[in-house]
Specification:
heterodimer, A: 271 residues, alpha+beta, Arc Repressor Mutant, subunit A, Glutaredoxin, 4-stranded mixed sheet, 7 helices, 7% strand, B: 427 residues, alpha/beta, Rossmann fold, Ubiquitin-like (UB roll), de novo design (two linked rop proteins), 3 domains, 5-stranded mixed sheet, 13% strand, globular
Amino acid sequence: MTGDPGGIHAVPLPAGWDEAVRLDEDPATIPDPASIDVPPGLRAEIEGHMSKYPERHSAALPALAAAQRMHGWCSPEAIDQVAAVMQVTPAYLSSVATFYDMLRTQPVGSHYVYVCTSVACHLRNAKSVYEAIERQAVDEGLEDFELREFECLGACDMAPMASIDGRYVGPLTEDDAPDLVAALNEGREALPGRGLSDRGFRLPWAEGGAAPDRPGPPEEPDVHPAGGTWEDAEVLDVPPAEGPPPHSRPIPQPLDPGTSVVPDDEEDTEE
Amino acid sequence: MKETRVLLANIDEPDLHTIAVYERLGGYGSMRKALLEMSPEDVLHQLEESGLRGRGGAGFSMGKKASFIPKGTMDKYLCCNADESEPGAFKDRLLMQKNPHLLIEGCIIGSIAAGANKGFIFIRGEYSVQADILDAAVSEAYEKGYLGDGILGSQHTFDLVVHRGQGAYICGEETGLLDALEGKRGNPRLKPPFPANQGLYQGPTLINNVETLCNTPIIVEHGADWYRKFGEGNSTGTKLVSVSGNVQRPGNFEIELGVTVREVIYGLAGGPPEGRDLKCFFPGGSSAPILTKDHLDLPFTYEAMAEAGSMLGTASVIVVDDSQPLVPLALRLAEFYRHESCGKCVPCREGTNWTVKMLERIDEGEGTPMDLDILGQVQDNIMGNCLCVLGDSMAMPVASMLQYFRPEFEHHMEEARAKRDLEEAVA
């Protein structure tokens, strides 16, 4: 069953749309564990994941991720190996792998650079940053890297940003593209000091505590907007006594009783 | 404008992610109190009384949700929704990266209230650094005996697993999350039955957002009466607000619910860049209908935002300044939801696709005035017609943009058409 099925399909199907399936064959069954060679490390990792859940199927996502780390992508071979260990059909794993963005069903490179171009980053010029990185990557011949635009990565405070194998870097400008691509090509850490998890990382506008509205933990009693006071932060530095630690989070004192209106009945909301 | 730091009180403490520092600052005290000095009913009662509402978007009372979990000896589960994928939201990332033990303590307290003995933190795959930190924190808690069988010599047993997603926005929807956790494609399920009755592995399941669970140790420690004094009306407590987009200081801030939106955008985040003015903002992530300058003086509460026709959602404020054309923004927004639609329900799968196509047409100068009416109708036909609210999440903001800025859409369409005509004439 290949080629253009014609008929109601006004748009011709892209070439290779049916490569992944062999419609003339019976679906693959659960592989015989003895017939498939699984690297011992991968087997141990998948079995470890399976033991954590009441149902072995729950390990599908971590198992596929582990196989992807080993093979570079969820290749048919990788899926067969996972299927053999988990004792599920390869089709089941394919159905899972095709759903999730981070599981790749095509070989794309063993490292990734995701550049966020979603709503908040879009507002801060992410598209041109992505294009600059892409241009640079093409010019310099970046290999074994998957470079793609990605949906919101959850770091809109450092927008526009990118995730290099999980390391978040930002805020980026177009001028960062040469450095970034060169670092990737040379296998060193890109933009050192500008990663979210780098020690001492601060956003440019929070530098040196200059931003007056981003205070650290208050050092002296401070008036809470609603009228109470902060606990003296110095109390916290006293090492805890033996036994259960005291309940002493440094949080604002409550108001005097009776100063705020507390409703009697809760509003019904839709779940 | 000052922040009211309750959840973030210790956030700048070095090495807060280690159990030693966390305990030095009084950490796990609430867990001891809940296990050794209180009955599970007391814990549940405190959570209900506190008025704590879910911080993940829907704003449903956390205590009430926990009280729906049936009693009995069946396997019950607690799921922490850490699949923070909403454009504009990054508050859970901060909590998990800097203060993972607060979340673990919150999970333990949640499990006491719900009677759950197995818990999962479903964290999105992109947060790999944060997941590693959580993994390390969970091991530390196991070593200390705060997780596992008979915690602190009590009858309570609770196991916690960090489960990494693999990049799908829809897994932030609670039933989609359950399917992903069961190892399937993350398609949402039909409700009812609600997860409180039949959730993970068909067992009763309590699902809460990271920030919601992080509030529970505070409530147990200080009591519901204390907690309720923060906030306004039915919006009790403090809230992490993620401000992003066209502001001078994007970031996470903790506020008392009830301060005005103006204080959040201008006071904390510094307002739009010099020389620009605010055009509109999303008060609760990209799924919330936009609001305009006229709404800046509203109190930032669940009720006030709902009354203004939007929602507090995750309290992720995305600010759009007057230099930003709205059509490309609406298009980018719609593209996000088209990409993330799981495809199970037709109105969402087709509606997001057609919205993108129409907005592309408008942006490229192929649009006709009729397109705006059809665009509005498509949004109407998505809302409320799907198993989950992903389609609505696109329909509501796009419809609200049309509602407030229709002249701009018309103008954009005309300009784009004139530009295209000119290009064709030159060619």
